[in-house]
Amino acid sequence: MQMRPLKLRKPLTLAAGVSLIAGAAALAVPAAAAAAHGAAPGSEVTGTLADGTTWVADFPASWNGTLILYSHGFGPLVAQDAPDPGTKAALLADGYALAGSSYDPTGSEWALDTAVSDQFGTLAAVESTVLPHRPAHVLAFGTSMGGLVSAMEAQQGRGRINGALTTCGIVGGGVNLNEYQIDGEYALAQLLLPGQNVQLVGFANPGAALGTAAELTAAAAQAQKTPAGRARLALAMAYLNVTPWNPSSAAPVPAGDPAAQEAAQYNVLFGGAFSILDFIELGRVSIDQADGGQATWDVGTNFAAALRRSPFRREVGALYRTAGLRLRGDLMDLTANTSITANPAALRSLFRTSVPTGRLEVPELDLHTIGDNLVPVQNENYYARLVRRAGSGPLLRQAYTESFGHCNFSSAELVAGVQALMHRVTTGRWGDAATAASLERAATALNLGPARFTNYHPGELTGAVPMRRH
Using one digit for the tens of pLDDT, what is the confidence trace for 415-424? Predict the structure, then answer.
């Protein structure tokens, strides 16, 4: 049916040019509540923005005055207002209103070109049609790619949001994501399939991307059978920043056991039903779609210099010595044989839409699992330096859980993160609220799942590009 404009009781708070369109049937609000411009307690409300973005909001039975604006991760463009049902139920029980959007459904799943405006558009719509009055506080909350979205919101948040919670976020930005991934994949192809023309970029369709992932996976399986192959796999996996945490183990492999580290990394990257390489290759297709061309390059990369800054350099050196290989020779070959260049316009687009400046306007708390198998925890090292460089260091806190897996947080850990951020927002001070000990106590007291916060400092993100001045 044709949608009619919905009259707002206050102006939209997002950038000029975004308008809200919703039909009476699109809002699941009782008529009396809709007339009062507020949702009924315990109700779910949906709507649509002018660009086709859909949004969803949940209004608790007893509202505490705070709205959480949730940004979902990479994947289907479907509106979500919480990372999982358990966390959603816990936040609603604590009185938080929740909202989140699909992002523009006509675009790429790498939705950074519109995600921030879509989220702020959702905020304006919810404030105008769901909440009985303007919220006392608004918190941005993002997961994975959505963590990058919430970090970008924190740069534009003054007057719109009061704080940001980033979980398992790609906070190193889209350019670094592309670069360390292409470095590692190029190293796999060059070292394990020398002389073969393995396609790494410019995929015509998802099938071609998955074909490359399968080719590299098969080569890795053969390499894992020999000391020389394992040494070269360790080198490639260092560029990919693969966690040395066997998925079946309770803790990461100690740094003093290079062979066990490599075996764990191999299992992370190539073992199990979920293929990290599949995800990487398909993700590159979506990033190129979003930016209108290939935004990835390896020409000019100094592979020896990149390895010197890697947390895994000692592992690689030890395995090369065991195999009797010349590491310097392989590094020189990698540097000499690069051939991939980026489309300048696509790269400019990726920088503009998907790379944080580090200039925060509101407090931000980042949570990351130590054993993240998809978005390496080393992203947090890069981001902390970026934020300090921008002069926003006092606004940022980072905390870590001793757990394996991407976004493998319990509801207890996530709600504890929300509580710590609320402490900073309402008091103006972090105090010890975001320390590992304080978060652990808070998460344990919630009784909503495991609490695994730990003191930790990640190593450098291997293959990160030099920081730009914005």
Answer: 999 999 999 9
Give the model's pLDDT for residue 37. Answer: 54
**What are the distances in angstroms from CA 199 to CA 183, 186, 232, 352, 436?**
13, 9, 20, 27, 44
Question: Quick check: is 302 in a domain?
Answer: yes
pTM of the model: 0.90
- Number of separate domains in the chain: 2
Residues 205 and 330 in one domain: yes
Count CB neighbours of 41 within 10 A.
12
CATH code for the domain in which residue 156 is found: 3.40.50.1820
- Which residue type occupies 288? D
Res. 216: pLDDT tops 70: yes
Residue 280 has pLDDT above 60, yes or no: yes
Question: What's the rounded Cα separation, in Å, for the pair 108 and 124?
Answer: 23
Distance between CA atoms of 101 and 81, rounded to whole angstroms? 7
Alpha carbons within 13 angstroms on the beta-carbon side of residue 322 total 18
Domain that holds residue 304: 174-349
340-373 pLDDT, tens per residue?
Answer: 999 999 999 999 999 999 999 999 999 999 999 9
Question: Does 439 share its domain with 422?
Answer: yes
pLDDT digits (tens, 9 = 90+) for 96-150: 999 999 999 999 999 999 999 999 999 999 999 999 999 999 999 999 999 999 9
**Are 166 and 183 within one domain?**
no
Q: Is residue 3 part of a domain?
A: no
Choosing from 349, 369, 387, the residue where a domain stops is 349
Q: What is the pLDDT of residue 157?
A: 86
Residue type, 89: A
